[in-house]
Amino acid sequence: MAVTVADVARRAGVSTASVSRALSGADGVSAAVRERVVAAAQALGYRPNTVARSLRTTRTQTIGLIIPDMVNPFFSELAWAIEEAAHEHGYSVILCNANEETDRQDGYIELLLARRVDGLLLTPVLEESEALRAVARQGVPMVFVDRSLASMEAPVVRADGSLAISQLVDHLVDLGHERIAVITGPQATVTGRERLAAFRTAMRARSLDLPDELVRFGNFQADSGRRAAVELLDLDEPPTAVFAIDNLMTLGVFQEMRRRGLRIGSDIAVAGFDDPPWFQLLDPPLTTVSQPVTRMGALAVDMLLEAINAGSVESHLLDCALVIRESCGETAAPRETFRSRHMPPDENPVNDYGDD
Amino acid sequence: MAVTVADVARRAGVSTASVSRALSGADGVSAAVRERVVAAAQALGYRPNTVARSLRTTRTQTIGLIIPDMVNPFFSELAWAIEEAAHEHGYSVILCNANEETDRQDGYIELLLARRVDGLLLTPVLEESEALRAVARQGVPMVFVDRSLASMEAPVVRADGSLAISQLVDHLVDLGHERIAVITGPQATVTGRERLAAFRTAMRARSLDLPDELVRFGNFQADSGRRAAVELLDLDEPPTAVFAIDNLMTLGVFQEMRRRGLRIGSDIAVAGFDDPPWFQLLDPPLTTVSQPVTRMGALAVDMLLEAINAGSVESHLLDCALVIRESCGETAAPRETFRSRHMPPDENPVNDYGDD
DNA sequence: ACCCCCCTTGTAATCGATTACGCCCGGTGC
DNA sequence: GCACCGGGCGTAATCGATTACAAGGGGGGT
């Protein structure tokens, strides 16, 4: 059916070895032969069978990408960045959506290993996973993205929100808030843990109280954010500001407040995490902590390729940036303070990641 | 290095043929042998090499997906739906982002064919493409999604917005609008052409004028929508309503109006296309034409598998639904009309696609 | 008791590339 | 003029599975 090296060899009047050499650009072929081979390949419409090549070379030029939720703008942007970077290096990406379920994740890992991907990029779902240990044991190159696992030694690239979160708390306090609630993610995820911890220490640094009732746990989905907002707003003494640690949960919070007719920015403050394009179009535009997604994706690929080619790699922690807009009452005649004078609400900090 | 059938065969004391048969669940193996083989495979941690299998069977259980823009929520949702459906059928998907560039698309096609994908799912970029003809000529199963090409015979699955657009125009007219502008996509795309055409006929049906100055062309990106909005609002006689035919351009329109301090819904009406979750969170919530994305993705996979296994497939046209919210002035004491009485603004029509 | 059939199993070819190895030939150094 | 060296090329092994074909063996029918 399809044209093979043998066909090309026959037409060019040479051996399959020469065809392979000529086409792969290896040396050890005369210019004359190379020319004849290229012409024959062209004439026959030869298209190398990478399946056969992979079998022989044990390289598939493919990486497996497992993310928890493609529809989450953060992850779809991440997937985009990763595909882009991989493509630039001649790698293809097999996309897998673990749906935050360990079983699915493990099934995909198994699948990808059977497909002999050259490496694995993933945002792990939960703490323990037999499939993951198998990967590590077999020495398959792997890099974690956005989340790491305490129990595993794999290199990670992710963004540390601690600094930006501390700035956010300062910002809120400067705007007069003291009763600030947080909606965090599952404590089995580093992001969920770390962002909560960062928030806690920032509050403590400002000598503010953070009672348990103001700490809520979601699952990174919009609806869990909405439910958390319901609980918070139904409190005897509701918070004056709510901080949600991912974009979907922020969406849910926004939705619930809107439903109750609360004016965000004046009646109550909302701060979010991540920065999809539409965050600035909400009313009011959202103040948020933004992650350097593009750089993270590119770095993930670089690290994985290094793991594939060189061996060991070290982890990378990137910084997040606080993007101040209007959802925390910045426009509502804020108290005159040092910080608010130096960060006027209408001066949106430029995202300096070089992304987008 | 890795465990192979030969290793399993040796340990189980049988031939490689028996191993293959036992593990693939084929009949013609005794229960005893099957048991021994499974045990041996288990003990050795055998993981089949699908590369070798694919070489032999000429099936890769892989489909190639080429979309123009992963970051567009419409396409990322589509990609999600497709991956989901493919996975259910035991197929993996290689994700490619053509970035609306023909060269990139063609490069990806070439790549995917070299990888011997079992089929191709794509949203084609432009009218003509040599790589695409090559696919067709070679008989590689292919299904177009969301866009079709007049010059090619491949089956398509997409959503026809005509009916919903006509309803939208009715809706706008009932709210008192007559000077309605449209921001459409490249006329090289079916969607761009069809939606404009549908809008034109709907306007004509209502005997409304649609001068050229009210027809603008974007490229499906937010910024092109913003620029079109600038031009429209700078007109001597600006429109009272603007309809943008995809979600990103709608975003741009929204942005520009917000920038000018226009109150959407009262000063000017905006209607969009697609329905990402945050459309209902904008202020005001957007009235929009929504596509059955999930069903489209599932259908695309079904069609492709049928093309792979059976042969020919026929195209499918799905219907869009008008989702009425508040961005067209629905809450602003609309004129009492038949339609507005029967479609009160606070009664959001349920999305009956069964998605999400 | 004999034969035939079918079920089970093994041997080896096969998919399409890459590549180790060896041959041949021309050129160079002595 | 002879031996050696090395570049160019072909032959055939190889990657790891699937599968066509053949062969062996047990059971049932007559």
Automatic annotation (TrEMBL), chains A, B:
Region described as Disordered: spans on this chain: 335-356
InterPro entries linked to this entry: HTH_LacI (IPR000843), LacI/GalR-like_sensor (IPR046335), Lambda_DNA-bd_dom_sf (IPR010982), Peripla_BP_I (IPR028082)
This protein's UniProt keywords: DNA-binding, Repressor, Transcription, Transcription regulation
GO molecular function: DNA-binding transcription factor activity; transcription cis-regulatory region binding
SMART domains on file: HTH_LACI
A Pfam family matched in the record: Peripla_BP_3
Residue ranges occupied by any HTH lacI-type domain in the UniProt entry: 3-57
Regions of compositional bias (Basic and acidic residues) in chain numbering: 336-345
SUPFAM superfamilies in alphabetical order: lambda repressor-like DNA-binding domains (SSF47413), Periplasmic binding protein-like I (SSF53822)
Protein name: LacI family transcriptional regulator
Lineage summary: Bacteria, Bacillati, Actinomycetota, Actinomycetes, Kitasatosporales
